[in-house]
């Protein structure tokens, strides 16, 4: 391992964490993604590491819980003394003052990693995420041919069941979560050159801005942003930044230009490893179309009783029925999808949503319940079958599913869709150890995603 790691990031969920993992690997950085912050001794087991990630769960936490979770995690990363520490958020900026607050993460991180300002980069053109004059635009479905919508008019994100997007100006969105003032290097200024923008950053700091948002529309602009962020780093202590995997794209592009990293020339390919298992906790319309397409092409489905899960957990009889059916399908050569919904209009979503409005269930964390149940099912099914590949869908549920599966770390094997690589799981003592796993957010992928993941 080199003396100083280039970048360490903390992801607010598992799918977003594998997104950052992919773009670091593509840039040529040897990277491992862990469930918990690793010690220096742990890192020595992985020779030549240049970057690491931590797959957190803060996207589904209240601000006080976030603070208690992030402080020790950030302190552990500070102890490793990487050049950069990045708090990785969803490229659609999923957050609210009461849940997954990005403002709270900024406040916590800025207090630990003291620097002149916190760079904020959410645009990720390679993922169909574009920021123009502070406003975020997102394609409908990462890696798809979907239309691009302003965030507050996005067909999916504006109707997100937990953190619906009501504001596309990220500075206004963030102002409801932190008192820190946010400045902007806008899309026209980005094109003006390094020295001009370095001077502009100085002016924004003199005006009292503690967070600086960088616009980006095109991929070629990312290296210039990476240079500005790298220039803001310190030779002896980490620079704390916040944003999507655009941070990894920008720094990676700049590092390649400067020959700090050698471009990745040999990424693996998706091959047929036999029937796959999909566990989906997503209610995105993109996920719904993907499930429907897979079912039309021979996949078998197992629909979980979400009302029962919320009321009483997964009963042993139900658990065994789900497992036995899945194993039977897999042994018969069939691919299997276990899901909690087929989109926001699924009667299960409607009925469970109504139930959660009642006082008795208002405190229930469905991401925890669904994700844990899905992970436990996957782990048991893997024990009782020759399953080699598992796909986990749903940003909010994925972190809990990964932990229930016993995963401690993953490394990238091959690209599958932008931001959702196929990985090898390190899960000591679990049936998942050594299996191929893929974590995808609800917005990721084309309609035929699961057929591609199967290796067809």
Protein described:
The structure is a single chain. The protein is an alpha/beta fold and 456 residues long. 38% of the residues lie in helices and 19% in strands. It is built from 16 helices and 18 strands. The radius of gyration is 21 Å and the shape is globular. The two termini are 38 Å apart.
Identify the notable features of this structure and list them briefly.
456 residues, alpha/beta, Rossmann fold, Molybdenum Cofactor Biosythetic Enzyme, Chain A, 2 domains, 15-stranded mixed beta sheet, 3-stranded antiparallel beta sheet, 16 helices, globular
> What is the CATH-assigned architecture of the largest domain?
3-Layer(aba) Sandwich
Q: Major beta sheet, specifics?
A: 15 strands, mixed
Approximate shape: globular
Report the structural category: alpha/beta
Please report the first level of CATH classification, the CATH class of the largest domain: Alpha Beta
Segments where pLDDT lies below 50 for 5+ residues? Answer: none
Number of helices: 16
Kindly identify the CATH topology of the largest domain: Rossmann fold
Task: Output mean pLDDT.
Answer: 93
N→C terminal distance = 38 Å
Short description:
With 456 residues, this protein is of the alpha/beta class. Helix content is 38%, strand content 19%.
Give the helix/strand layout.
Layout: E1 7-11, H1 14-27, E2 31-34, H2 40-43, E3 51-55, H3 63-80, E4 84-88, H4 102-112, E5 118-121, E6 129-132, E7 135-139, E8 148-150, H5 170-175, E9 182-185, H6 187-190, H7 194-206, E10 211-214, H8 222-231, E11 239-243, H9 246-257, E12 277-280, H10 285-296, E13 300-303, H11 306-312, H12 316-331, E14 336-339, H13 347-356, H14 366-383, E15 389-393, H15 395-404, E16 409-417, E17 420-426, E18 436-440, H16 449-454
Parallel strand pairs: 1-3, 1-4, 2-3, 4-11, 5-10, 5-11, 9-10, 12-14, 12-15, 13-14, 15-18
Antiparallel strand pairs: 2-16, 6-7, 7-8, 16-17, 17-18
